[in-house]
Amino acid sequence: MAEPEENNEELEATAAADADDKNVAADEESLAEADAEEEGGTVIRDTDIVFDCPHCGHNLAIDYRGAGLQIECVNCGESVLVPIPDGMKIDDLDIEPGEILKQLFAARRNLQRAEARIAELELELRGVTMRSDSLRALLESFAIQLEELKELSRNEVKLRDKSAALIGRLAGDISATIGDAAHSEMLNGVDETASDAE
Ligand SMILES: [Zn+2]
Description:
Elements: H1 2-40, E1 48-52, E2 59-63, E3 70-72, E4 79-81, H2 97-197
Antiparallel strand pairs: 1-2, 3-4
Zinc ion is lined by residues 53, 55-56, 58, 73, 75-76, 78.
């Protein structure tokens, strides 16, 4: 019957996880209560190890981080070994739940800051994209205007060539006309001279 055992293990694991969550919650509370405890001196937290002094029987409560440590009884002053609670491994003490909480809170703050930064950057990106879109539109309209200008200038060159050719042709016609006129005038003059001589 392996299956039920596995299920039990799962249940145990879930229970342990739940217990961890409770510890975290308890620790959040205990952080808030820490000052009050120092003033009162009698507040016993869920995470405290509570035991009786083996010498005088005085009820002692010590923070779980004291597990396995040698302390002096507050009542009789004898050296007492703080018991390690069942299911607690000394290795677990390497990282204190308080430290884990601090790291968790710091991670949460960093996450919030990162998310805010991401939102900022997304907004900035949207602005840049919009600006780049309008710049591209502007650039496109510049390109179109440039093409129009090139076309105009090509037309102007053509026009200039055409008018130069026209002017050349007109000049040729004019000089030809003038030449003809002069020639016939000259001929007339010769005739007149000839008739004068007669
Ligand atoms: Zn004692």
